[in-house]
Amino acid sequence: MRLKSILAILALMTVFVAAFTAAPQNPGAALLEQARAKKAAGDLQGAAEGFEKLLTDFAAERKPAANALLELGAIAESLDQKTRARNYYERLRREYSDQGAEVTAATNRLAELEGRSAPGNAAAGVGGGATGVGRIVIKTPYTEDPYAFALSPD
Predict the structure, then answer these.
(1) Alpha-carbon distance 61 to 74, whole Å?
(2) Which residues lie below 8 Å from residue 119, measured CB to CB, with a gap of 6+?
(3) Closest-CA residue to 46 (of 58, 59, 37)
(4) How far apart are CA 145 and CA 143, in angstroms?
(5) Half-sphere exposure of residue 29, counting CA atoms within 13 Å on the CB side?
(6) Distance between CA 86 and CA 59 in Å, rounded?
(7) For 63-110, how does the pLDDT look when each residue is reduced to its tens digit (9 = 90+)?
(8) Which residue from 97, 96, 101 is spatially nearest to 54, judged by alpha carbons?
(9) What is the DSSP string of the chain?
(10) What is the separation, in whole angstroms, between the first and last Cα of the chain?
(11) Tens of pLDDT along 110-151?
């Protein structure tokens, strides 16, 4: 009898743990991924609407909101709307300055939009400047697939 009680309690605990871990913990991140999926499928209008919805409904979630601004800037660039893209990148730098990687990406995109090299690029003179220390920026293609890298079997 005691064994059955212990097993029943364990089963209930398992159900509760599964229910709480399956619930989305970050709705802003989920909305970001949905919009990115639309963008990858070629639905730029639907993706832009998703990113805008994230900005209006979940602006307090700083990381997804900053990424949404980056994505909106990229969509505007792909539609050859340079001024609009610049506005998104500048907004990201102004309102989400605590998001380091996103701010760096926005700064690099702004530099490219203005026709000059991004800070730290080889064309800008890596290692130059007053301190003699520069950053090296390696551009890699963006992909939605987290396993889109090659590993050598050797």
Answers:
(1) 20
(2) 107, 108, 111, 135, 137
(3) 37
(4) 5
(5) 5
(6) 19
(7) 999 999 999 999 999 999 999 999 999 999 999 999 889 999 999 999
(8) 96
(9) -HHHHHHHHHHHHHHHHHHHHHS-S-HHHHHHHHHHHHHHTT-HHHHHHHHHHHHHH-TTSHHHHHHHHHHHHHHHHHTT-HHHHHHHHHHHHHH-TT-HHHHHHHHHHHHHHTTSPPTTSGGG-TT-SSSS-----------S-TT-S-----
(10) 56
(11) 999 888 545 544 444 444 444 445 666 666 556 566 565 555
Query: Is residue 66 classed exposed, middle or buried when 0-12, 13-18 and 19+ CB atoms within 10 A define those classes?
Result: buried
Q: What type of residue sits at position 127? A: G
State the pLDDT at residue 34.
92
Q: Is the dihedral of CA 46, 51, 54, 56 positive or negative?
A: negative
What are the structure tokens assigned to 12, written together? 């209930």
Amino acid at 154: D
